Structure formats: C-alpha cells, structure tokens
Amino acid sequence: MDSNKVDMFIMSNSKFFESHQLQFIRERLITIDDSHWPMLSTMQLKDPTTSLIVSILAGSLGIDRFIIGDTGLGIGKLLTCGGFGIWAIVDWFMIQKATREKNMQKIQHLMY
C-alpha cells in the first residue's frame, strides 16, 4: 500500500491504538495491497475516551463492555451490578486499554 495513505491513516487514527503498536501497524499496512484500502478507510474504531466516559457514568450496568464488544463481560457486570461496584471502579482504569486492544484485534483481522 502507498506509504502516504498509511501515514495518513496512522495520523488520523493514532488515538485508537497503543503508541507501541503504531509502528507494527504501519509496517503491516505497507505490505498489504491496495484492495484493502476501502475496508480500512471505512473501518469503525471505538474511541477509548468515549468508553471511559460511559464506564464512569454507566459502568455498573456493563454498558462500557457492551460498547467495545465484550458481551460476556457486559452481561457479567450487568448481573452483578458491576461486581458489586468493585469491577466498575477497576474498569475506570482498564477500559481505555481494553478498547485499544479491541481496535488492534479488529485491524489485525483485516491485515491477515
């Protein structure tokens, strides 16, 4: 793929990934062919900041986990009222990383 397209993608979507993953993403995207570009450019990535806000406001209901695609964990948080509040508080610190990991899984699925 053209390095200008890859750099543009990295610049506009860097907040959706961990900083140490960006070089790996760039290297992999350069090696794939241009037929993946339409899927890559329209890919919906989850915003870690939005996940944090939802986690703070409605984390005890598991909505934050439902948003990032962790349906099983969302149901668990919903049934236990956020692990009796403890799990909800822990997720305030963990949800952004979990969101970035889900985004990385999504882009890896496209690359392979």
TrEMBL record:
This is TM2 domain-containing protein. One of its GO terms (cellular component) is membrane. InterPro entries: TM2 (IPR007829), TM2D1-3-like (IPR050932). The chain crosses the membrane at residues 49-68, 74-95. Residues 46-93 form the TM2 domain. It is found in: Membrane. The lineage of its organism: Bacteria, Pseudomonadati, Bacteroidota, Sphingobacteriia, Sphingobacteriales. It is a multi-pass membrane protein. Keywords: Membrane, Transmembrane, Transmembrane helix.
